[in-house]
Amino acid sequence: MHTTTGPAPTDDGAVPAIEVVGARKHFGHGSRRVQAVDGVDLRIGRGEVVALLGPNGAGKTTLLDMVLGFTDPDDGTVRTLGAAPRRSVRAGRIGAVLQTGGLLDDLSVRETVAMVATLHRKHLSVDEALARAGAADFSGRKVSKCSGGQQQRLRFALALLPEPELLLLDEPTAGMDVNARREFWTAMHQEADRGRTVVFATHYLDEAEEFAARTVVMKGGRIVADAPTAEVQSLAGTRVVSFRWSGTGPVEVPGATPLPAVGARRRLTGPDTDAIARRLLADPAATDLEISHAGLEEAFLGLVAD
């Protein structure tokens, strides 16, 4: 399935947080040339929370790099908050949480935040930045002694220092365990409630499903879907039968396709989920049946399939 929907409504009367028009970016030459971003148009309004999804190599990070001014498009234009990306970054209007780099191992978490604060004319206090990022409890720890998840919290504190209007997050919860991910997104909810525009790339589809009002899916450097998250979910076009299974063997239902289990629940889909459910109801090993629309994972897999 390769479906592109129209972009979600934005505040057309205001300067958008992000405006990308016809952007293209390639790397290498000849047989090694890779078209990382291939004619992307994207408009994100102020105050939106947008998930950017796609398989490895889809162009997500390259697109974010252009929005941050790390690299320029070969063709097309990129504007952030009505200005060139580098200008917005220099003014402290954009904050970013990236996957790697930018930290000095020999400094403590607090020393790192204090040092970077001196680069901004206006900024939060060090204590407030640490608290809002959930990094206060380990602020005395050397960066080299921090876990991957703690280093991401530190990057979040650094991103919040100038109180940016736009937050860009590239795999922000990489290296975090389940509890740390939950705490991170609680903090991010609070920042979104303050009116910030939040754009995040993630491989955790549940994060997009739970947090993003709008989802943009990329494949091969192009946008293949852009719509409210609930509408992207509906692009799967199927329903799912989930149930608990006490049988000893595999679940075999004619016309049903198995999906990955979720916890203790088995899942099947097919063209006639009512018939699948009737067949399961006749089997005492199947209990607690539910029929629901396919989730974001199924829609995503369909959109990026070859």
Identify the CATH architecture of the largest domain.
3-Layer(aba) Sandwich
User: Low-confidence spans: pLDDT under 50, at least 5 residues?
Assistant: 1-12
Please indicate the count of domains. Answer: 2
The fraction of residues in strands falls at 25-35%
- Give the strand order of the largest sheet, numbering strands 1, 2, ... along the chain: 5-6-7-3-8-9
Number of strands: 13
The top-level CATH class of the largest domain is Alpha Beta
Q: Output the radius of gyration.
A: 22 Å
Q: What is the CA–CA distance across the termini?
A: 9 Å
Please provide the ordered H/E string of secondary-structure elements: EEEHEHEHHHEHEHEEHEEEHEH
Q: Report the helical percentage.
A: 25-40%
CATH fold annotation of the largest domain: Rossmann fold
Largest sheet: 6 strands, mixed
The helix-and-strand class reads: alpha/beta
Domain ABC transporter: 18-245
Subcellular location: Cell membrane
Pfam families: ABC_tran
Keywords: Antibiotic resistance, ATP-binding, Nucleotide-binding, Transport
